[in-house]
Specification:
One of its GO terms (molecular function) is metal ion binding. Keywords: Cobalamin biosynthesis, Cobalt, Lyase, Metal-binding. InterPro entries: CbiX-like, Sirohydro_Cobaltochel/CbiX. This is Sirohydrochlorin cobaltochelatase. It comes from Natronomonas salsuginis. Helices cover 29% and strands 20% of the residues. By secondary structure, it is an alpha/beta fold. The protein folds into two domains: 2-120 and 254-282, Rossmann fold (3-Layer(aba) Sandwich), CATH 3.40.50.1400; 124-252, 3-Layer(aba) Sandwich (Rossmann fold). It has a five-stranded mixed sheet with strand order 2-1-3-5-4, sandwiched between helices. Helix 1 packs across helix 7 (257-267), helix 4 (124-136) packs across helix 5 (159-173) and helix 7 runs antiparallel to helix 8 (275-282). The longest helix is centred in the middle third of the chain and has 15 residues, at 159-173. The protein is globular.
Amino acid sequence: MQALVIVAHGSHLNPDASTPTYDHADTIRETGVFDEVRTGFWKEEPSFREVLRTVESDEVYVVPLFISEGYFTEEVIPRELRLDGWDLDEWDSDGTSATHATFEATDVGKTVHYCGPVGTHDAMSDVIVRRAESVTGDPDVGPGFALAVVGHGTERNENSAKAVHLHADRIADMDRFEEVKALFMDEDPEIDDVTEFFETTDVVVVPLFVADGYHTQEDIPEDMGLTDDYRTGWETPAEVDGHRIWYAGAVGTEALTADVVIERAADAGADVGSAIEDVRRRTGEATPDTEAGAGD
């Protein structure tokens, strides 16, 4: 038997924080590829520390629904899961290249294949593009449009920005959009000045966040000038300094993110059968076999 455990931050204050985690778990559960699909959280129940005790399978694939490598993926989660012999050197990562490592959780008698975060997987580029398609209602969006991939950014963890640059560069290499840039909330180049960075009139803005919350629904819309008060909402697209801004909201709310979770588990050795193709088909994305994409 093989189980999948999706671990995420969650929140005591924002009830929407865990919604994408539950949604993606449901999508994957419907494929029937895992004997069990469970969720665990830092700020909700079941906790990281207890989630393995909810699993019957002896072999468990743990996928962090986080955007970047850092404190939670490299310290908190392995500690709370009590992975015997956890050693950061096992990752051999440059900040975006961690894939997986296998450990024993002897207190619960399980083999745990611990995966890198979904946010640094190549297939997340597909999800960003799909988010642009969703907000514009155009499956062929690209020509005549620019794309801004937005991250939090922080001087405390350089890996926070690496994931954003990774996907911006990969999508730029696709030659689909007129311009592609990485922008940030707390470091340069800043999202406040979004219209200064693009010549293209139509700009799709996709925040590289797992869930919608304070930053994506309050800070970023006001910082970009979509609205003076987030509580009054904003138009999509919104006219700002001669540009049309198509604001997509958090990338992790896109249904195709479930595919990235499965791909992380598959990279770690899980037998996923046709689940990747099934999820892509059901969420409206072409499969890798029928159309080349950023996740190939």
